[in-house]
Write a structure and sequence with these properties.
Helix content is 39%, strand content 20%. By secondary structure, it is of the alpha+beta class. The protein has a 7-stranded mixed beta sheet with strand order 6-7-8-3-2-1-9, with helices on both faces. It has a two-stranded antiparallel ribbon with strand order 4-5. The longest helix is centred in the middle third of the chain and has 15 residues, at 105-119.
Length: 289
């Protein structure tokens, strides 16, 4: 039976029956910067390209699938704003089935544009980045496109990827997550892990049984996003900043960063609303102000 795995740093993924078929769908808090975490991937796709569309359903969106042999660059990234009880959640759906969702120049351009728009939209609280291609999340860089690049183009292209997917950098981030010795072992051997192994070393945070629809990871991401929605946007934003920056420094400096971040919440209306809601024994109504 297939399973679904949720990767560390807010990443979620589906684990297929064979080893290390991690298919993550990112669920990240939208704050002072948008991070799209990296993952261990080894993907497979069907012989035909899938074209998919969304249909409304109780409790969320359900994906209806149909076959298509055409490649449309304009549909490689689909931005979807959820409504009703999911208002404030945005789903970014990657749809490059012919290339197993490999990262191309066009996809990076579209992701960059979407991220810039989301960061300036105060109504957006949480985003989920998922694949719309069955059995595949992302095969990494589009090597067929990369081989056609001049050597002078490669560096700037990688820099653009880092600007959008700012959690890449395995040689630096993996040792911080699982320790230097084990990180070297995995990087030097290019070892492929299954979901239970990845969870055991702290590389992922959830392992789930796959459902009949094949979207257990997305459903888990949606559940997490719903938990984030009622929280104070200002507090969440500075908490994210404190965590991200604090992990790169010693404890004393990290505590100073935390204090500086907390100071930013003191003059806000949201802080007063939280205190008033506690006094009146009601849920707070945060506005991000």
């Amino acid at each position: 039976m297939a399973a679904a795995a949720a990767a560390a740093f807010g990443a979620l993924g589906a684990l297929q029956a064979s080893r290390a078929r991690l298919v993550p769908a990112w669920c990240r808090r939208l704050g002072l910067g948008l991070g799209l975490p990296g993952s261990v991937t080894s993907m497979r796709a069907g012989p035909a390209m899938w074209a998919q569309r969304w249909a409304p359903a109780a409790g969320g969106a359900v994906l209806k699938r149909g076959y298509s042999s055409e490649v449309n660059a304009e549909n490689e990234l689909r931005v979807r704003y959820l409504e009703e009880e999911n208002r404030g959640i945005v789903v970014l759906g990657i749809n490059r089935a012919h290339a197993k969702n490999a990262i191309s120049k066009n996809l990076i351009k579209m992701l960059s544009k979407a991220v810039d728009a989301l960061k300036s939209d105060k109504k957006v609280r949480t985003i989920i980045v998922r694949s719309e291609v069955p059995g595949v999340f992302c095969a990494g860089a589009d090597l067929k496109e990369r081989v056609k690049m001049h050597s002078s183009e490669v560096g700037p292209f990688v820099s653009k990827i880092r600007a959008v997917v700012n959690d890449i950098g395995g040689t630096q981030r993996l040792p911080r997550a699982i320790g230097m010795s084990l990180a070297k072992e995995l990087i030097f051997s290019a070892r492929v892990l299954d979901g239970q192994e990845a969870k055991a070393i702290g590389l992922i945070s959830h392992v789930l049984e796959q459902n009949k629809e094949g979207d257990a990871a997305y459903r888990k991401a949606l559940d997490l996003a719903r938990e984030f929605l009622p929280q104070g946007p200002v507090a969440m934003r500075v908490a994210k900043l404190a965590i991200n920056q604090g992990m790169e420094v010693d404890l004393v400096t990290g505590l100073a960063i935390e204090e500086a971040c907390y100071a930013q919440t003191i003059p806000t209306k949201d802080r007063l609303e939280g205190l008033l809601a506690f006094k009146e024994k009601r849920p707070p109504r945060y506005k991000g102000e």
